[in-house]
Amino acid sequence: VSNSIPEKIDFEWYCKIVKALTDDYRINIHLLSKKRLKEYEKIYSPMIKVEISS
């Protein structure tokens, strides 16, 4: 879960970085708004928080 996702993002790069943060092969990456995430929170748990600085 990220606090903010830049408007323009290289999704492949983002995926590589996020996957490098864990050894868990089950990782799935989805770009969701916070509102939409609340709807799916139970499905996508546990989550790793990812901080993006701009």
Large-scale geometry: globular
The structure class reads mainly alpha
Note the beta-strand portion: under 5%
Major beta-sheet overview: none
Supply the number of helical segments. Answer: 2
Give the strand tally.
0
- Percent in helix: 25-40%
Radius of gyration: 11 Å
Order of helices and strands: HH
State the domain count: 1
Low-confidence stretches: none
Mean pLDDT: 76
End-to-end distance: 16 Å
List descriptors.
54 residues, single chain, mainly alpha, globular, 2 helices
Summarize the structure.
The chain has 54 residues and is mainly alpha-helical. The protein is 31% helix and 0% strand.
Describe this structure in words.
- The protein has 54 residues and is an all-alpha fold.
- It has one domain.
- Helix content is 31%, strand content 0%.
- It has helices spanning 11-20, 34-40.
- The longest helix is centred in the first third of the chain and has 10 residues, at 11-20.
- The chain is globular.
- It starts with 10 loop residues before the first helix and ends in a 14-residue tail after the last helix.
- The mean pLDDT is 76.
SSE blueprint:
Blueprint: H1 11-20, H2 34-40
